Amino acid sequence: MTTPLIIDTDPGVDDAFALALAAASPEVDLIGVTTVFGNVSLENTTRNALRLLALLGRDDVPVGVGASRPLVHPHPHLSSAHGADGLSGYADTLPWPTRGPDPRDAVTLLRDLLDQADRPVTIVPIGPLTNIALLLAAHPGLKPKIGRLVVMGGGVNGGNITATAEFNVWSDPEAARRVLVEEDVPTTLVPMDLTRRCAVSSQWLTDLAGTSPVARTLVGLTPDYLATYRRFLGWDGMAVHDAVAVAEAVRPGLLGGTPFPVDVDCSYGPNRGALVVDRRREVDAPKTLDITMEADLDGLRAFLFERLGALGVRQ
């Protein structure tokens, strides 16, 4: 039996690979996508999500438009590793969708999909957690319908947007704290410590592009992102952060997790958005998160290649 899956996203190059992995995986049934500000503006993330689903032959999936800004403080305007349009300037290489966004906003769409589900739904938030915080605040009675949150975000040993904060958590720390610290929904956190180690090489991308026209289009979205990660990594490759989280949703247990108590720094200082992980084993905490820090990296890359390389076959 397939697992119903919803992806909350801010596409984003690695988000594109994440959506493609969900579309290519028979273990899950992608029943909805919700969009949020983040890598680029909400207008761009929504357009990118719709066009990516068109590329993947999944125009049937409803797309709910979500939050355009964080819960409390305005989002700083910074240049994006993903290019001005979120997809390295190549968003226009994607097909136009056959329909627009769902008339329901993201929270209403999430509510309806959860309410209608006949089995627990996995939600994979791979952008700022604003939509998920709003859902849990407005509709706490629906929490039993959520089988698991698989969240890409946070850095256990430091950040990427600041010295201590990872981009998704930093973008809306108050929302992240609500979801990761205050709520009692089963949650797996996939931090950048692991996703960065799962980076793929430019040769991996070249080989993937040779598998199908769909894969070639997907790889064609990577130039700006790849150029940024060449500097970040110090070698010719790029991280596919969000696809790693979807891989865990597709195959629960693929990533090795350890439960830890956490907090999120919501102060307005240099540590704003930092994930605070208490690794003292003797601590008896009321809530822990399953934080994935280990994986068979070569096996994970092979899994991603196998699934994404089959996209053209599935069209």
Automatic annotation (TrEMBL):
What sections of the protein cross the membrane? Answer: none
**Which InterPro entries does the record associate with it?**
Inosine/uridine_hydrolase_dom, IUNH, Ribo_hydro-like
Question: What cellular component terms from Gene Ontology apply here?
Answer: cytosol
Tell me the GO BP annotations in alphabetical order.
purine nucleoside catabolic process
- Please provide, alphabetically and separated by semicolons, the GO molecular function terms listed in this UniProt record: purine nucleosidase activity
Give the SUPFAM superfamilies listed for this entry: Nucleoside hydrolase (SSF53590)
Gene3D superfamilies attached to this UniProt entry: Ribonucleoside hydrolase-like (3.90.245.10)
Domain (Inosine/uridine-preferring nucleoside hydrolase) spans 5-300
- The organism's superkingdom is given as Bacteria
Keyword annotations from UniProtKB, A to Z: Glycosidase, Hydrolase
- One Pfam family named in its UniProt record: IU_nuc_hydro
* PANTHER family, per the entry: INOSINE-URIDINE PREFERRING NUCLEOSIDE HYDROLASE (PTHR12304), URIDINE NUCLEOSIDASE (PTHR12304:SF4)
What protein does this entry describe?
A: Pyrimidine-specific ribonucleoside hydrolase
Q: In which organism is this protein found?
A: Saccharothrix texasensis
